[in-house]
Amino acid sequence: MTNPTADSPPTAHQATHERTFHGDTVTDEYAWLIDKENPQTVAYLEAENAFTERATAHLGGLRETIFNEIKGRTQETDLSVPARKGGYWYYTRTEEGKQYGIQCRVPVQPGETDPPSATGEVPGEQVLLDGNALAEGSDFFALGTFDVSVDGNLLAYSTDFSGDERFTLRVKDLRTGEVLADEVPGTHYGSAWSADAGTLFYTTVDEAWRPHRVWRHTIGRPATDDVIVFEEPDERFWVGVGLTRSEKFLVIEASSKITSEVRVLPADAPESEPLVIAPREHGVEYSIEHHGHRFLVLHNKNAEDFALSYTSADAPGDWVDMIPHEPGTRLESVDAFARHIVISQRRDGLTGLRVMGDGSTDFYDMEFPEPIYNVGLTGNPEYDTTSVRISYASMITPDSVYDVDLVTRSMVLRKRRPVLGGYEPADYEQFREWATAPDGTRVPISIVARKDAPRDGSAPALLYGYGSYEASIDPYFSIARLSLLDRGVVYAIAHIRGGGEMGRRWYEEGKLLAKRNTFTDFVACAQALVREGWTSPERLVARGGSAGGLLMGAIANLAPEAFAGIVAEVPFVDPLNTILDPSLPLTVTEWEEWGNPIESADVYAYMKSYSPYENVAKLAYPKILAMSSLNDTRVLYHEPAKWIARLRAVAPDGNYLLKTEMGAGHAGPSGRYDAWKEEAFVLAWTLEVLGLA
């Protein structure tokens, strides 16, 4: 590594590493950066950070301004709408000046049906867990599970202080406030209690960071006595554990990208043998929810966009249809309550909720007023209820919480996220545009802008995309985004293939040997914004993270002239080298998403044709900002580090910046103020590229 001057970036030395697959050689000059323990690696990353800081020092004032805008629009001391569970109302609150949420509860008062006020102090509050106290002295803090026992007496929680998503599980007695001697290191997300709170189930990961074991822990016993309840040997599958809303069954789910298998055991018999609902069948995905005498089964067997069936809870067997498959209506999840069933679904690129009565013959779809929105269930722990809580937002309507009476269909607004500083939704407009992909497919775009934004191509714009894993980037509200909109920036989301916005086929047409559709869809969306007068290429920035960072790297090679700048956050820009190495975290489980280039020459050639790192060329690239985290276990830090190094070597005339969080994971900084500062950094860079700094 050369020592950079004030005006020049560091230069990574080359140490060529070669591997041969299918008669072709993969050359990786910067493979040495994968060694996290190598002092040269750390020194290089720190030199890159120092260069980025120098290169953006002139934006310090703008960063501070944007940070203060985000902070000033946020009600810092606030609390969520309390949700009832048993004899308590549970909620999270935040305090001004503190980074993390505080988990609390208060007893339900006799005859009380409505939640306590979600705006002020709540009398009789019991603090269950204070993230600020737990995080004291640590630069990073995250919870992996927060799980109150059925009787309300014990709390299972797990903590991570580095960002590597390895959690230490502990148990707190909520009657005394004492943290018990029970302590289990190296656990994964999630947990589940037995009915009597004497047993706790949790998961652990293998060396490839794949959750593969479900364990049973007896409260009061050392972790060394814990018993493996289920172990998944197939490296394509990962496992999870949970408790049904009815609290009658523990559920163990094993899933790959395209296949699933569910086991259950009675919550009041935690030492019993798990019962398989239906043996795994390649390509068949299903999930279950307990509902009285039956298990509801949401599945895609002969149903591309999924169907809803049921089977006996006493002796699971054949599936009986409830909602048949309807092409174009993607059933995403099912939630069971004592007398109702609520199905979360998606149609024409919009989310929706369908309500079924206990008889399963009558149903209705909830209706919402805006043309673009995002709706879903949230915080519904109670099984025996006729009311559900939903979240609702659009690109101009802040996050809102409603309670819906499932019988009368009436909706009560419990809270709308405060936006301080005089925010007026009427000052903004949201739109749905459509782009046409090279193969003729129409791709939806969600757009928000101030009403006075010009439509003559002169407005600056930011286009966001993801497009993998059937994940949908639905229209959402963002306080931070206002710092762009109020400076005249048009904000757009490209709902490209590989995501799930338009149903299962939308996902299938953007994965494996159809992955290029994701990239060409995004470019088509950028071109549509220009064609419809929203912006111009020299005033357009693209942004994406993780698998969306792969998208950013791919479009940089595919259409560099279409963008003025690209923000790639924790970007998966070296997919070929990663997927060719089964020893790396999550590689084997990813083969059903991207293909297996080790076994298939066609997959190998296809991945090599679009891999951003492999296809860096002497092009006139737009300005690029790559963001990474040293402790990321999902997209390893060395991918963006190698990508930036190769860009500098092959196309040295470009403007490339790399910023690595040296003490965080995949999601970046954990505290809210730190996260706001990180967002202000990105937005200030974006505004400079757009000519608005």
List the helices and strands and how they pair.
Layout: E1 17-21, E2 24-28, H1 39-55, H2 60-73, E3 78-79, E4 83-85, E5 88-94, E6 102-107, E7 126-130, H3 131-135, E8 142-148, E9 154-160, E10 167-173, E11 179-187, E12 192-193, E13 199-205, E14 211-218, E15 227-231, E16 238-243, E17 249-255, E18 260-266, E19 275-276, E20 286-291, E21 294-299, E22 307-312, E23 320-323, E24 329-336, E25 340-347, E26 350-357, E27 363-365, E28 374-377, E29 387-393, E30 400-405, E31 411-416, E32 428-436, E33 442-450, E34 461-465, H4 482-485, E35 490-494, H5 504-508, H6 516-531, E36 540-545, H7 547-558, E37 565-569, H8 575-579, H9 587-594, H10 601-610, E38 623-629, H11 638-650, E39 656-661, H12 672-689
Parallel strand pairs: 34-35, 34-36, 36-37, 37-38, 38-39
Antiparallel strand pairs: 1-2, 3-5, 4-5, 5-6, 6-7, 8-9, 9-10, 10-11, 12-13, 13-14, 14-15, 16-17, 17-18, 18-19, 20-21, 21-22, 22-23, 24-25, 25-26, 26-27, 28-29, 29-30, 30-31, 32-33, 33-35
Helix pairs in contact: 2-12, 6-7
Describe the structure.
With 693 residues, this protein is an alpha+beta fold. The strands form 9 sheets. An 8-stranded mixed sheet has the order 32-33-35-34-36-37-38-39, sandwiched between helices. α2 crosses α12 (672-689) and α6 (516-531) crosses α7. The chain is globular and about 70 Å long. The chain starts with 16 loop residues before the first strand and ends with a helix. The model has no long low-confidence stretch (mean pLDDT 95). It holds the Pfam family Peptidase_S9_N.
